[in-house]
Amino acid sequence: MAMQFYASPEQIMRDRSELARKGIARGRSAVVLSYEGGVLFVAENLSSTLHKVSEIYDRIGFAAVGRYNEFENLRRAGVRMADLNGLSYDRRDVNGLALANAYAQTLGAIFTEQSKPFEVEICVAEVGATPEDDALYRLTYDGSVNDEPGRMAMGGQAESISGVLKAQHRPEMSLSEAVRVAMQALSSVGGEGGASRTIAANQLEVAVLDRRRVGRTFRRITGAALTALLDGDASAGAAPAPGRAQTPTMPTEEANKPITSAGSADLEGQQSEQPEG
Amino acid sequence: MFTNAGTSSFTAFLSKVAPEMLPGRRPLPPGMAADLAPHATTIVAIAAAGGVVMAGDRRATMGNLIAQRDIEKVHPADAYSLVGIAGTAGIGIELMRLFQVELEHYEKIEGAMLSLDGKANRLASMIRGNLGAAMQGLAVIPLFAGFDLAASDPTRAGRIFSFDVTGGPYEETGYDAIGSGSLFAKSALKKRFRAGLSVDDAVRLAVEALYDAADDDTATGGPDLTRRIYPVVMAATAEGTHRLTDAETATIAESVVSGRMENPGG
């Protein structure tokens, strides 16, 4: 008969934490930061289809690092929860805090109850009317939640990336400045002998929650628009991302046209009342 | 319940976790319920070169009464498609909201939009789900139209799908109308529709057709110049869907009405 060994709860938790931390540290990093026109997500990602950054709801975005299958499962859960709440109540009643709490419960339960914790770290970002109103929630593998001050870094060597972000980031910066700061932070680690390195545009996943849009604010920046932005062309960020084949693009914004996906147009179009009859 | 692997369809998800939120899943007491709730009426859709136009009148009726003068029955389904609802207003609005979430949900989960045919098929199965209620008089019939991003010929990218209570979809060529005034609207369109219309001409034609429907059908409301209530007109083109502003529809509706002052038959 096999011997039963005693392991203290403390030891079990420590082992799980170590496993999760190691898993997360192996992956490439992501940064999220507020800028004047919204919230910017920049993730280092070799794949153009397996996203680390995605849309959850009108004003809520999601970024994650770690194991893809695990955070993808959490992302889907978030989309389902947000859509269910938005349909039952109203689109305005879906907020980032509720989602962050739900994620915290899920991650916390998995950490304590299952033999292997999720090796993920995620960010739930909600764009507000001003950079001060933006909310960035950091959720770690054990279910703890942190409200971050307008910027955060996740993944391998997150601490040194955070250091660069902290020194460079200002909430009133423009999109092109914000992208430059994010790039500088991400590329400050991982070079030969701790030096900085260069990251090619096709290894970056960039998206924003655009403060000034009505309805769905999430938008990816890919292809030529991204290259132009990295080269420091300030006007490039204003153009919607091309490349319909890879990403669902939203229609161009012309003269206050409502962004007409799903029910948001009904809420935020020129008609204020919504008839029920 | 949210983290189970599973489907990209929001209605399929709802049927597992909250079936009471699906209109077709509610038990109804026996008997006819047709006169219980307001009915929304006429919608027209016209395919134009480079897009499609959909317009709806603003009246909801309950028997011989006007239940609402300014109801909006034409809505964007997603960034490139439009849906109009005729039939029982409450269930129609609910189905339309559900359909909007269904399309957006798929797009967010999968990272790609459904094809236009895929959207029409989803709508058909949602309408079929309401068959029980439809047989008791609470029918809802949508009209679906959109810009097909996969179309090889951009002049034929505007497509229209109709449905019946048992589902569908049935693709229509050129134009279609639903609701109580559809007979008259379609008769007007039959004589006036030409393939390859511009979007602006199609908008005008849609407002004319709604005028003809309102002319002969009491349940369809014409342009209400005294209260400044005009039809809802939307277009779906390569740039996405957009709704004409009240000022734009007012100009068109007023010019249609002044045309009819001289020639009531159009």
From TrEMBL, chain B:
It is found in: Cytoplasm. It catalyses: Cleavage of peptide bonds with very broad specificity. GO terms for cellular component: proteasome complex. The formation of the proteasomal ATPase ARC-20S proteasome complex, likely via the docking of the C-termini of ARC into the intersubunit pockets in the alpha-rings, may trigger opening of the gate for substrate entry. Interconversion between the open-gate and close-gate conformations leads to a dynamic regulation of the 20S proteasome proteolysis activity. The active site is at T41 (nucleophile). Residues 1-40 form a propeptide. CDD domains: proteasome_protease_HslV (cd01906). Keywords: Autocatalytic cleavage, Cytoplasm, Hydrolase, Protease, Proteasome, Threonine protease, Zymogen. Its EC number is 3.4.25.1. Pathway: Protein degradation; proteasomal Pup-dependent pathway. Its main location: cytoplasm. It comes from the Bacteria. PANTHER family: ATP-DEPENDENT PROTEASE SUBUNIT HSLV, METALLOPROTEASE TLDD. Belongs to the peptidase T1B family. The 20S proteasome core is composed of 14 alpha and 14 beta subunits that assemble into four stacked heptameric rings, resulting in a barrel-shaped structure. The two inner rings, each composed of seven catalytic beta subunits, are sandwiched by two outer rings, each composed of seven alpha subunits. The catalytic chamber with the active sites is on the inside of the barrel. Has a gated structure, the ends of the cylinder being occluded by the N-termini of the alpha-subunits. Is capped by the proteasome-associated ATPase, ARC. Component of the proteasome core, a large protease complex with broad specificity involved in protein degradation. This is Proteasome subunit beta. It comes from Micromonospora coerulea.
